[in-house]
Every structure is written in structure tokens, then in C-alpha cells.
Design goal:
Strand order of the largest sheet: 1-2-5-4-3-6
Structural class: mainly beta
Helix content: 10-25%
Radius of gyration: 18 Å
Order of helices and strands: EEEEEHEEEEEEHEH
Number of strands: 12
Length: about 210
């Protein structure tokens, strides 16, 4: 589980195409501190498993399912990425509940400059629009953000200088893809309230 509070702006140092999968080598001295084989690290909001690490870098294998559902397939050597380690039990939940399971991708549509922040408009797949509400939470490339405006096929977010400086959202321009993860609680509620679902069986009296 993650919180969407990015710890480090990392970099892709190598990409190996394995046909129906890819192997990434990524630099992140902070997130690899104390990392071990099998640990999880979120890369642009995608939960990946560490298969090798050393000298401030780690390697992760990315299967076809992840490449098809996220924007990781567009990464190349030199690409900057948002990195986050899993939340420690007992730690502060600074953002919101993030699983690192990308629901789909959007595209940066426009950026509007203000004196102290930027408003960014992002396209939203139709299948995800029902989970996005004004003042609700959404994860964009692994960054926990508050929705400013929720449209039928887009949403907007307001980025403070810290977010612009310390994440890839500061360098994403119109046309760039981003990974989206909606609030998992909304998906569970929808599932539980879906028509036609059988009511839970009553327990027998004892």
C-alpha cells in the first residue's frame, strides 16, 4: 500500500525489451536504501517488484498486463519517474490509500499558469469518470492529488510549487500520457451496491 506522496524523482537508466515484457533499471538512491529482493516500489504509480538492486539502482520486470494498462511502455533511458516506497505500518497516511494498481491512462490536455500554482487538465477514460468527484482524491503518475473539477471526460488538478519541483508533473506537457488510479473505496462501494448481487446469508442462531 502507498500514500501517493512521492519520495524521490528517479531516472530510467536502462530498458531491455523482452518481447511480451520489459526489464527496467531505475536510479533511486533514497528508495533503494534498505531495499531487498521482492520488495515493492511504485514507479509513476505502478507497483513494481525489486528483482535486483545495488549502487542506488534497482531492476524490475514489467509484464505485458502492466505495459498494456499503464504508460510505462513509453519510458526510455533517461526518462524521469516518480518513486515511492510502500507505507510503513504505523506511519502517517499523508495522501490517500493507493494500491499501485493502475486503472487506466489519461493525457495532459492543457496547463494554466497562475502566480503560485498551475491548473492541469487531464483527459479521463469514460469507464473511470464515475469514480472521480470534485474534491475527491485521484492518483496521477503515483501522485496523490485533489480533484478541482470533474467533467465527463476530463478532470483538473491544482499543483503547488513543491509538486511541480519534486515530481514528473512539473515537466509533463500537453499530449503526454499519465497513469491514473481512482479511489479503491469508490470501486468497492459500487461493487457492493450493484443490482442483482445476492444478500449475504444470515448466520444460524446458536
Amino acid at each position: 500500500m502507498f500514500t501517493g506522496i512521492i519520495e524521490e524523482l528517479g531516472e530510467v537508466t536502462a530498458v531491455e525489451n523482452l518481447g511480451d515484457a520489459s526489464r527496467f533499471r531505475l536510479r533511486g538512491p533514497l528508495v533503494t536504501e534498505g531495499a531487498g529482493h521482492g520488495d515493492s516500489i511504485a514507479v509513476n504509480g505502478v507497483c513494481l517488484t525489486v528483482v535486483d538492486h545495488g549502487d542506488g539502482e534497482f531492476t524490475a520486470d514489467v509484464m505485458a498486463e502492466t505495459l498494456n494498462r499503464s504508460s510505462l511502455g513509453a519510458l526510455a533511458t533517461g526518462s524521469r519517474v516518480n518513486l515511492e516506497r510502500p507505507m510503513a505500518v504505523g506511519g502517517r497516511l499523508g495522501g490517500h490509500i493507493v494500491q499501485g494498481h493502475v486503472d487506466g491512462t489519461g493525457t495532459v490536455v492543457a496547463r494554466t499558469l497562475s502566480e503560485h500554482w498551475e491548473i492541469v487538465k487531464v483527459s479521463l477514460p469514460a469507464a473511470l469518470s464515475r469514480y472521480v468527484v470534485e474534491k475527491g482524491s485521484i492518483t496521477v503518475d503515483g501522485v496523490s492529488l485533489t480533484v478541482v473539477e470533474a467533467g465527463a471526460d476530463y478532470f483538473t488538478i491544482s499543483l503547488i510549487p513543491t509538486t511541480l519541483a519534486l515530481t514528473t508533473l512539473g515537466i509533463k506537457g500537453p499530449g503526454d500520457p499519465v497513469n491514473l488510479e481512482v479511489d479503491v473505496i469508490a470501486k468497492y462501494v459500487e461493487r457492493l451496491l450493484a443490482p442483482g448481487r445476492p444478500a449475504p446469508a444470515e448466520e444460524p442462531e446458536r
